Amino acid sequence: MLGKYFKHSLLKKIANRAGTPVYVYSAPAFLKQISTYKKAFKGLDPLFCYAMKANSSGALCALAAKAGWGADVVSGGELYRALKAGFKPGNIIFSGVGKTPAELEYALKTGIMFINAESMEEVLELERVAARLKVRAPLSLRINPDVDPHTHKFISTGRLGSKFGVSFEEALKIYMYAAESAHLNPVGAQFHIGSQVHKAGPYALAAGRLAAFIVKLASRGVNLKYADVGGGWGVKEGDEMPDPAALAKAVGSVFAGTGLKLVLEPGRSVAAPAGLLLTAVIYRKQSGKKNFIVADAAMNDLVRPALYGAKHPVALIGPGGEEKVFDLVGPVCESGDFLAQGVRLPEPAAGQLIAIYSAGAYGFSMSSQYNSRPRAAEVLITGPTSWRLIRRRETYKDLTACEI
Ligand code: LLP
After folding, report:
1. Whose CA is nearest to atom 9 of ligand 1?
2. Does residue 230 line the site of ligand 1, with CB under 6 A?
3. Confidence (pTM)
4. Which fold has domain 27-270?
5. Tens digits of per-residue pLDDT, 105-114?
6. Alpha-carbon distance 378 to 25, whole Å?
7. Spatial separation of the C-alpha atoms in residues 74 and 195, rounded to whole Å
8. Nearest 5°: phi and psi at 10?
9. Structural domain boundaries of the chain?
């Protein structure tokens, strides 16, 4: 499915010029996800805030900003990058369980749309910062709707007992407090139930609970403007497009006609299909009955297989030998360093390229220099034969650049 965006002939040219491992993104694929979201939600007129944690590359973020999207940021660093990429401050929201006073101040000075606070203590800190700056802080609360999204335990966030959000009960108290404050302006309510959620059912359940709560708040004199249903819409690894129409239906049937502005924070579903990791084979070897391909990309480049058991489709670029079952591993000194396990591939020769698909989200953004491996380069395909380097490969010098 993704083949049309990533022609093998072009991937070979990119690897020749940019080297490997290299993240390759497709601007047309990224923009297609954006337009599919827009179409699916037509009529509801939501604000989409691209969740930058999925991929904060300036070139991709600029595409989202140009398409009229806002940004969902979770750190001062992401806010800095969002502004640099051209997102309008008034279209930026700030999420996360542990925003520091300095980050809150940065957000307020920037004039962002709202802050999704996650505890009474954070709200009190926000109030202090706003008072110091002599402003009213636009406040939304992340509410934990206690809904099971049926996803990996590391990325499931919507059940009570997780570190995220506040209960409806606590939220009611916080909103009543905020409504009385000279420096807090309660404008919204949010939930984010988890990531890689494949069914609309949990969203419908959470949205229904949120809507009922917003009505209750209004009866107490607190009228919100925004209903934010988070991100988390899943992708089938290796597939071009998850259809968000089911999601639109689930939340649309709850919020349409309420006068609330709907906000969404998709990350993975926009970026994942728009990127792959291109790696070159260094060696082949056998151990016991297992066949290994040792490639030049490793868990420091793409940690998702090791961390979540994620299965990214892999393909050999160009013809290979006899088909065999392989584990695709990297040079990092850990048995957990694998990119794919038990995959059937034509036997590659050393130097041949392998594409690891669905790596546009939480690939580069979660990469590290572990084993003192300079981070990979990033490339953006802009047309059928055109591409450009959007981040140079790190050098050995970069590894020690911050040491003093
Ligand atoms: N909004 C909030 C508040 C979030 O915490 C997240 C993701 C999103 C939006 C975007 O969710 P998405 O649409 O991308 O699923 N590293 C993991 C995923 C962690 C997601 C954390 N929060 C992975 O590689 O699967």
Report:
1. 231
2. yes
3. 0.97
4. TIM Barrel (3.20.20)
5. 999 999 999 9
6. 8
7. 15
8. -70, -40
9. 27-270, 273-393
